[in-house]
Amino acid sequence: MTTDPRAAKSYDAMNDSRAIKAYDAMKNLGISKEEVKPVLRNLLKVYDKNWELIEDDNYRTLIDAYFEPMEEKPEEHKRKAPVEDNDKPPKTQQKCIKPFQTSSSHKLLSQRRLSDDERMSSLPSMAARGKKSYSAAASSAGLYSKEPSHQRKNMSSDHHQKKITTHNGSLGASNGNLSIKSLSKGSRQALAEDKKKSVRYVDDITKGSENVKVSLLDETESEDFPKFNYIPGNVIYQCANVNISLARIADEGCCADCSGDCLSLSFPCACSQETGGEFAYSSNGLLKEKFLTDCINEPQAHHYVYCKECPIERSKNESKPEPCRGHLVRKFIKECWRKCGCDMQCGNRVVQRGLSRKLQVFLTDQGKGWGVRSLEDLPMGSFVCEYAGEILTNTELYDRIVLSTSNDRHTYPVTLDADWGSEVGLKDEEALCLDATHNGNVARFINHRCNDANLIDIPVEVETPDRHYYHLALFTKRNVSAYEELTWDYGIDFDDHTHPIKAFKCCCGSAHCRDKKQKGTKSAKTKKLKHTNAH
What we know:
InterPro entries: Pre-SET_dom, SET_dom, SET_dom_sf, SUVR4/1/2, WIYLD_dom_sf, WIYLD_domain. The chain is an alpha+beta fold. The protein has helices spanning about 5-15, 15-25, 35-45, 50-65, 115-120, 185-190, 290-300, 310-315, 395-405, 520-525; strands at about 95, 135-140, 140-145, 165, 195-200, 215-220, 230, 235, 305, 325-330, 335, 360-365, 370-375, 385, 390-395, 415, 430-440, 445-450, 455-460, 470-475, 485-490. The strands form 5 sheets. It has a 7-stranded mixed β-sheet, with no helix packed on it. Strands 7, 8, 15, 16 and 17 form a 5-stranded mixed β-sheet that branches. The protein has a 4-stranded mixed β-sheet with strand order 11-19-20-14, with no helix packed on it. Helix 2 (about 15-25) packs across helix 3 and helix 3 packs across helix 4.
């Protein structure tokens, strides 16, 4: 009889020195090794043998994971508390937060508890804080908040919110809070029945529109649930002139004779001409280091072009526009088109294949609102996502902001001006930008960081050679570790007081922050700052 090597490896992990310390810590709570072992094994599987997450806060996660099933027992096994002052228990209070845009195909989801496997797979890396206890069932079409109830309903959709509970107090803290060693056996039930709070978790905010799910985690409950409609790609709002047709793609600008993967050819095909006769991508799906380095150095090279009559300034004051402030000359990636003969797995079709990395929207703790992190390590040159939103003319954007109320919160718009230097006399319907405030994808949550962000935006041609419209793709500038927040430089001019959206007070934390207002002022250091892109 042979032994499964995976089982042997698991056995070793369950009996090494770190596991023994965990058993000893739980023994002080009166919990035997036999009871702890299956819980610890599941946590090691969920956290990919990352002991730091389990040992953090004096084994807080392990304690929570052990006591959680106790609270799932049927009601008749629990001690019944008398109902005071009323013969009937109070009715559940419900609050419905209406979304910006709803769809009949995405109905409000019911509330339910996690199964053991789901609970283990959704445990966060940080303990939740606070005393309020409620559960929220959510889909990307809306949020439903509910006060505590003893009844649990099953959810029929994959796009659901999971309930994660933690206990009050910080176990192991030295400031008078409980420590494991100070707890007796009788403390087990008290700990299990202690007040708890819910951590909001949405399994997939994309409504199933992406190749992979994008989860959302709120461990603080200090921010309203984001209200927007998720779209995986850009959509025209109204007047934008985006002409996508095969007739506009010249035969010499595509590789109709190719088949399979263009990157496997001994000689680069016509689609590589835009990037100097070499493809921007390597065979492993990453940007080539030289191309990435050139893109990173573009702002330092100060290659700017200036319009004789800038569409942005014209949208602000058509009768007397201000001089152009300049537009950065950018490198483009030209991917293979629909007219090309290669297949969709071609190495030169990275952006158009869509999202492939495991991303999570989370609530930051630096006053920046929502942010995005990767749940996996990302090597340098990885495609993360594109910035998707409504395609507006600059005039439409300006009018939209002027007509908005003071309570509206806008994401910072992206101007598609990478090739305005080659255009003469751009019409308003050709001077375009992207606005993800009401309709957008996961990129709308990525926070700004001055100069040393870990992402870079690069223009990508996918459907049309007309460069007044293109895709804006975000790639990693360096190796990015799992759970590190993703950031990119919006290219904000903090001194431009005429921009339709006023530049936020930057709290990026970079040593190279361009927001001079934040430096050397006491109020800037003590005041809780909020990004315009806090969503």
